[in-house]
Amino acid sequence: MTLGKNVLAVNAQSSSDVAWLTLFFVLVLLITGISARAQCPTGTVAIKGRVENLPEGSKDMEVLVILETANGKFSHAGTMPDGAFNVDVPFDTQKSPYSPLGGHHCTNLPKSVTVKVSKADQTLGERVLSFKKSFEQQGSNRYRLKQDLTIDLSKSSMGKP
Question: 51: buried, middle or exposed (CB in 10 Å: 19+, 13-18, 0-12)?
């Protein structure tokens, strides 16, 4: 009879241990799962403009927009039929890794925006814009130029405006 009681006591203790271990693993999975998931929204920069004085045979030309942020570069290329272009560049707004004490920091914004006009890997014109001076917030995490951009290829369109 005592052997039966001892077996029941051991089984009760081991099932209690299993319950605690299961709870512990569930908590660990929840905590790591929450921190691993991206909580910051994706931002978008919209560039609208025109390229003037295109060279003869200006087919196959493209506009490349490069955003430079503290966490790296984000770029997107677009075409420019008839010299007009409209390019949206998505970027990650997460500035630093998740911290259990500080949470998510979703303040990563571009510092500068470079717009390059190229044909067959040759840059014909380029403009570098200050994000803070040249862009305005259009909606939640969406930014646009305060005015349309014009790049004149007959002039030296390299560098800052």
Answer: buried
